[in-house]
Amino acid sequence: GAFKTCVDNRETKARVEEEEKGGQKAGVSGTPGIFMFDTQTGNSAVIPGAVDSTTMQLFLDNLIAGKSTTLGTQEFKLEKVANLVALNDADYVRGDKSARVLLFEYSDYDCPFCKRVHPTLKTLLENNADKVAWIYRQFPLDQLHPTARAKSEAALCAGKLGGNDVFWAFSDALATK
């Protein structure tokens, strides 16, 4: 049917590759690759992996305040991420696209750390609906997770055929498996 046709489509495969290349250009090497981008200042907080809810909130608050974040002895300064791909029509967005902060997550559906951070990001959005929107981008790590790319393609097709809400429902389901 339509789903299989979409998954087999070269365009779907190309879209996964495009999102992946965008992540690489922005400096993503592992997953989850998370950038909080402040649309008012152009600053980004680059999140060090699957941090907990309290830490994620701290990064958001500090980004909006224009401050770096210190965890233990490590300081995470705000950065201008030169090659971060801007929000575009092909993106699937949870929350208000016009929010001040856009959180870009480059992710792999089979990555345990990505699964761990998924509920954290849902909580962040619930608690800061007026401030932040979440954009999910595909970044399958083929060597570690041989089925991740197929799941990325399936998720994009779920979104293409069913819309934004279906994409997110599909992503939520994969994150809890």
Provide structural commentary.
- The chain has one domain (2-175): 3-Layer(aba) Sandwich (Glutaredoxin), CATH 3.40.30.
- Helices cover 45% and strands 19% of the residues.
- It contains six helices and seven strands; from the N terminus they run ααββαββββαβαα.
- The protein has helices at residues 2-8, 10-26, 53-65, 112-127, 148-162, 164-175, and strands at 33-38, 44-47, 69-71, 74-76, 92-94, 101-107, 132-138.
- The protein has a five-stranded mixed sheet. It has a two-stranded antiparallel sheet with strand order 3-4.
- A hairpin with a 5-residue loop joins strand 1 and strand 2 (44-47).
- The radius of gyration is 16 Å and the shape is globular.
- The two termini are 25 Å apart.
Defining traits:
single chain; 177 residues; Glutaredoxin; 5-stranded mixed β-sheet
| Helical residue percent band | 40-55%
Question: How far apart are the first and last residues' alpha carbons, in Å?
Answer: 25 Å
Which strands sit side by side, in order, in the main sheet?
A: 2-1-6-7-5
Enter the CATH topology name: Glutaredoxin
Number of helices: 6
Largest sheet composition? 5 strands, mixed
Give the mean pLDDT. Answer: 96
Secondary-structure element order, as H and E? HHEEHEEEEHEHH
Tally of strands: 7
Strand content: 15-25%
Number of domains: 1
Sum up the overall morphology in one term: globular
- The CATH class, by name, is Alpha Beta
User: Structural class, from helix and strand content?
Assistant: alpha+beta
Tell me what the CATH architecture is: 3-Layer(aba) Sandwich
